[in-house]
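Lay summary. Proteins are chains of building blocks that fold into shapes, and those shapes determine what they do. In this project we predict the shape from the chain. Here is one chain we studied, written as its sequence of building blocks.
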Amino acid sequence: MKKKALITGITGFVGSHLSEYLLTQDVEVYGSIRWRSRTDNIEHIRDNLHLFEADIRDAHSVQQLIDKTEPDYIFHLAAQSFVPTSWHAPIETLGTNILGCANLLEAVRGINGAPAIHVAGSSEEYGLIQPDEIPIRENNPLRPMSPYGVSKVAQTLLTQQYHLSYGLKTVVTRAFNHTGPRRGEVFATSNFAKQVAEIEKGKKEPIIYVGNLDAQRDFTDVRDIVKAYWLAVSRCKYGEAYNICSGKAWKIKEVLSLLLAMTNKKVKIRQEQDRMRPSDVPILLGDCTKFKEQTSWAPEIPFEKTLEDLLNYWRNRT
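And here is the predicted shape, written in a compact code that computers can read:
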């Protein structure tokens, strides 16, 4: 009998890629959607999915979702996941992310033989990093610098508390930056790729608008990330948190240069103040030795290939 996996936030960027991967592992895939969810990301596999309407902020809705699906694995991805939005809407971010996680854990708490639960944390939990703390390990102090980062710290603590108090089979992953086809256009790599595609099609003046180009980020292809998520529920120790990353940091200006090398268009670069954050983490460079030792995972897709696929995704949509 096939194992059943439930993905909250299945229509999102990561959720859609995770769905694709789990289907190749002969897993029956269930997902939660909201009535207003756009399903573009999963249309090509929709006939192979079991979708249920649910709102993670509503405890009764989440309980019904768990009762109907009876999953063996849960991947909790549903969240307000855009850092800049968390400054404009901190209460919504905290409410969605923290209460949504608590509702899910409560719904599972009373189940005998409860499912393994993966909660997607974030490298933003680390926040302010001192020079002598790089690369970042799981035992590093958590100093979040955004409401989003705070919400993810709370999710991690809740998840670990439910493991300690009730024995739930929980695992938290702190994925560093990840990108690839279908990445939302509000995120830097995807936004740059979309702008390039629009310039190539003559739909936009040859100017790339940017924010902070000096920040350094550790990028991994989303298709490698979702393989790691599957390994997290099948091989990792419950109650633990694990970094998932490539172990290499790229300056955002280097990312932009890689994309511009893939087009023959000449463009100007212009910084916009509204693309800057009130506080920005200068560098996020991770160490995922703990996860690799537990699972033997390693990223396989070169970052240049990730950006090429992302640019082609926007070329096909523009």
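What the prediction tells us: The longest helix spans residues 90-109.
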